[in-house]
Amino acid sequence: MTHYDSKETRSPDERANDYNRALPSLVKSAAAKSRGYAKLYKDLDLNEIKSTSDLEKLPVLRKSDLKEYQASSLPFGGFTTRNENDFDYIFQSPGPIYEPGSSKHDWWRVARFLFACGLDKTDIVQNCFSYHLTPAGHIFESGAKALGVSIVPAGTGNTELQVQIAKNAGVTAYAGTPDYLKVILDRAEEMGIDLSKLTKAGVSGGPLFPSLRQEYHDRGINCLQTYATAEAGNIAYETIPDQGLVIDEDVIIEIVRPGSGTKVEDGEIGEVLVTVFNDDFPLIRFATGDLSSLMKGQSSCGRTNLRISGWKGRADQTTKVKGMFVRPEQMEEFLKRNSEVSKSRAIVSRENESDRLLVKLETESNQVEKFRQSLREILSLRVDVEIVGKGALPNDGKVIDDKREFG
Predict the structure, then answer these.
(1) d(CA 169, CA 165)
(2) What are 239-267's pLDDT values in tens digits?
(3) Which among 279, 382, 269 is positioned nearest to 315, based on CA atoms?
(4) How far is 73 from 40, CA to CA, in rounded Å?
(5) Residue 295: phi, psi to the nearest 5?
(6) Is pLDDT at 223 greater than 70 in this prediction?
(7) C-beta neighbour count of 293 within 10 angstroms
(8) What mean pLDDT is predicted for residues 361-389?
(9) Superfamily of domain 321-402
(10) Would you state the pLDDT for residue 406?
(11) Rounded to the nearest 10 degrees, what angle do helices 178-191 and 210-218 cross at?
(12) What spatial distance separates the first Cα and last Cα of the chain, rounded to whole Å?
């Protein structure tokens, strides 16, 4: 079977008609069953929402707004159509932002991506996404289960143990962040352990750099990436390397001018808004904060949906380092905790095919280890710290400077 289901090969007109029929019901149901959307849409005539062309009549729901809604109405801000105790999982992502989860069949819609990676019931996947508080591990496990794939719920860390498990279990596929697979493979070489059965990889949580993909290819591993978030699940996924990401069949994507709800021209980079057809947790015009662009034409794989060009950075200064978000508000929290530091600047770069986070601090204090530990507590990442003199950091408003090139 070439494609996951018949949805992937619908004609554009058939897909548009299906969305136009489903969208009005999604919007009205969300407003009727959730306090959050009822409040957001209270001054609107929802009878005017008749097709996807009417989406721009609806307000944008931003992640920062969701955080504020949740602060006053824990845990989900009133944006679910079910009570919190009706969900199988309650997750917490950095922010903090709470997300629901369900053990329903492929609830996050990741199976079609893993299918595109070539996974089937003959495979054993080592799932190296975190199972702790955040939903990534469960998101990818749900998709693997839907395909009948056997799962090693490895989570993160303990690299030598990861290598041993991969060898002993006969692992054929990897799921996790792009960088960590290289860590496992390099350690396996150091230990003299053969992991050549591992020939498939599905990655997310950070950009897959061209040089890293080539390294995996040279090692006999077909590595594809998906764009997924804790709130929305699978949004768009690769089917062929470097041909863009096909939009998931239960998602509508709009590319808008950052900070607005106004669409940009096709091919122009803008902020990604998603509308997700999930009856339990509908997201309507949800601003991800990520930048991308729509691509022309269709993928040569035969899937007919629109494609996006991939992750092109953040609409704000927030970025991802080793699969974890680094946000301006986190850097502000560090300054609050360390009053002797007058200014900070987080610089993200690449070294030896891995992300590096260097934080420069304007301060007269030389307590480097104290500052490093404080940053690690806030960011949940290993950080290099450099002390600089007063006035040494540029006066350009940047708190986070991402110097990586994304191709």
Answers:
(1) 6
(2) 999 999 999 999 999 999 877 888 988 88
(3) 269
(4) 14
(5) -105, 155
(6) yes
(7) 19
(8) 95
(9) ANL, C-terminal domain (3.30.300.30)
(10) 76
(11) 40
(12) 32
pTM of structure: 0.81
Buried b vs exposed e over 243-276: b needs ≥16 C-beta within 10 Å?
A: ebbbbbbbbbbbbbeeeebebbeeeeebbbbbbb
| Rounded Cα gap, residues 372 and 387, in angstroms | 11
Alpha carbons 190 and 365: distance in angstroms, whole number: 40
The DSSP secondary structure of 96-136, one letter per residue, reads TEEEEE--STTTT--HHHHHHTT--TT-EEEE-S--SSSSH
CA 277, 35, 89, 159 dihedral sign is positive
Q: Is 316 left (phi over 0), alpha (psi -120 to 50) or beta?
A: beta
- Reported as a single tens digit per residue, the pLDDT across 10-35 is 999 999 999 999 999 999 999 999 99
- Number of alpha carbons in the 13 Å side-chain half-sphere of residue 400: 23
Going by pLDDT thresholds of 50, 70 and 90, the confidence category of residue 234 is very high
3-state secondary structure of 174: strand
Residues 74, 77, 81, 87, CA torsion sign: negative
Average pLDDT for 220-233: 97
Token pair recorded at residue 96: 């903090």
| Residue 167: exposure state from Cβ atoms within 10 A (0-12, 13-18, ≥19) | middle
Neighbouring CB atoms inside 10 A of 74's CB total 12
- Whose structure tokens read 């290099």? 384
